[in-house]
């Protein structure tokens, strides 16, 4: 059995004796230590000449530090909150702002600015950060000449526009005269340790430059793995027993969607409707074996178990293609080759060319997946319900299966346990006022959080009207939670239920068509103060729904497209247009 250790390749830009010395150290580090080190070194690497940074102010107590985050699902917010704690301990007076609540002019007044921003869609800003982002990119943006700043970008290397928003904000602030105090860090899905290292280095550096209360004091280590409320994290998930595992799609359905209930007994996971559960999946052992065979590394049990439980053996990134080409000497395929392909396709370009160490170093850690919680604790007690659609498709001649969705639906059954942790989403909540009407647009698995919303509203006896718009392929096979919905119509909890089954008639019919047909009522509900929620597919559905909402506001409000956009923006700023899309 060979030992798996990360090593620098011989091609690293060091002398051979340096490579040997570094490898000696690296080989005994943990993955987390290596990620911290890489973040720390990135943070130390000032992009500009330190002399060019505005001279340090005379040491003063409590130097102000503005920490600004742009988030969709809360990661950037969590990092901002941790940065605030560390900065406060160092003697800064940190203030944390959501990009949703601040303008670039206000940000430009900050002398010290730390930005944490994620990227969504295909290189887009998080929804609530759109106004800030657009104002920053506009010709009328303020100058940032008074501001020292640094940017931590969050993203996922699986996307072509990796960390695009952090990148653009960083470049824009420099163009507007800001003084960059540390190189931007671009974090992948396993961002915790790298972000920690970068924050440590950046805040230390800023502290040294501007002289906070304890200038020169060393940083208190940020620990993202520290329990927030319940103590369960992706690194230390809760083993939740599956108490119910039911396929909801009919036997003749072309989709394969399951209702999965897990017991949270004893975990203290106090979720709210709108939150998601993180699930730590395992890879398909058959795929791990196929990978080992392609790599010519069969028989290595340690590697096999790492491939099943620890490493991402499917996602293919452009960086991996470059690394693979460098390590094996094969010519790197063109950038668009990766589309629809996975790691196994890359290995098949040069079978048997990598050692176990090289293969391990090529792969990133296996990221968790998130599933909206489809229940309310007030209705189900210490359980959480999930609605999981198994992803299966064929691409480039191979049958492919979604890692987590197929792990949960096909390789787990009642009585097994799932590794879970809470991912709270403060930005996707029922209105505080139980009498406010809500419109919930949730086709496919997008209906999941709305089942939780409805259970909650029923349990608290909320008086507000509830309108659900659901869609899928066929009425007969794909009407998820149909009986419950019908009961809720009967009981009056559901004031209105509209459905769109795309394949039940010659022309495709989707939720946006239903919304258009119901535009008069929809407009009346909105005028009545209804909160509108959208959940589900980010690419086609959320975009089409957004477009039809604009059309409806223009048509029903008898206004032009600009005025309709302004009205929808105002509804969004009012917290009445909320999306949880993926
Ligand atoms: C906040 C949030 C809530 C969510 N809630 C739910 C939920 O309630 N229910 C639910 O089922 N899912 C939900 N998801 C999605 C879920 O997290 C997973 O992304 C989904 O289950 C797929 O994960 P997987 O591991 O099975 O697939 P992966 O192994 O991650 O594969 C997905 C990747 O496969 C590729 N791919 C997919 N289809 C094709 C194709 N046709 N051709 C080529 N390539 C393709 C794409 O690159 C895609 O990114 C949610 C996501 C988020 C962020
Ligand atoms: C639907 C969706 C689209 C995404 N698009 C991108 C992208 O284009 N580029 C990128 O680098 N990351 C992308 N990501 C990854 C997120 O940026 C990453 O998960 C980040 O940690 C989220 O941070 P937040 O919780 O602060 O929003 C996407 C994630 C999802 C679920």
Number of folding domains? 4
Largest sheet: 6 strands, parallel
Global geometry: globular
Indicate the CATH class of the largest domain.
Alpha Beta
By DSSP (H or I, 4+ residues per run), the number of helices equals 21
Provide the low-confidence segments as ranges: 47-59, 218-228
Beginning-to-end CA distance, first to last residue: 40 Å
Taking all residues together, what is the mean pLDDT?
Answer: 92
Q: CATH homologous superfamily of the largest domain - what is it?
A: Flavodoxin domain
Range of strand content:
15-25%
- Evaluate the radius of gyration: 25 Å
Helix fraction by DSSP (H/I, runs of at least 4):
25-40%
The name of the CATH topology of the largest domain is: Rossmann fold
Structural classification = alpha/beta
CATH 2nd-level architecture of the largest domain: 3-Layer(aba) Sandwich
Report the strand count.
Answer: 19
Structure ligands? flavin-adenine dinucleotide, flavin mononucleotide
Report on the architecture of this protein.
The chain has 582 residues and is α/β, with parallel strands linked by helices. The chain has four domains: 31-210, Flavodoxin domain (Rossmann fold), CATH 3.40.50.360; 238-281 and 368-423, Translation factors (Elongation Factor Tu (Ef-tu), domain 3, Beta Barrel); 284-362, NADPH-cytochrome p450 Reductase, Chain A, domain 3 (Up-down Bundle); 438-581, 3-Layer(aba) Sandwich (Rossmann fold). The protein is built from 21 helices and 19 strands. The chain has helices at 16-26, 31-44, 75-89, 104-108, 130-137, 164-175, 192-210, 285-295, 301-309, 318-328, 343-347, 356-362, 377-380, 403-410, 448-460, 475-478, 482-491, 511-517, 519-527, 541-556, 561-573; strands spanning 63-70, 92-98, 112-118, 148-154, 179-180, 185-187, 238-247, 257-263, 276-280, 369-372, 383-389, 392-395, 398-401, 417-423, 438-441, 466-472, 496-501, 531-536, 577-581. β12 (392-395) and β13 (398-401) form a beta hairpin. The longest helix is centred in the middle third of the chain and has 19 residues, at 192-210. It is globular and about 75 Å long. It starts with 15 loop residues before the first helix and ends with a strand. Mean pLDDT is 92; it is low at 47-59 and 218-228. Residues 73, 276, 314, 340, 369-372, 387-389, 391, 393, 395, 402-406, 445, 448, 580, 582 line the site of flavin-adenine dinucleotide.
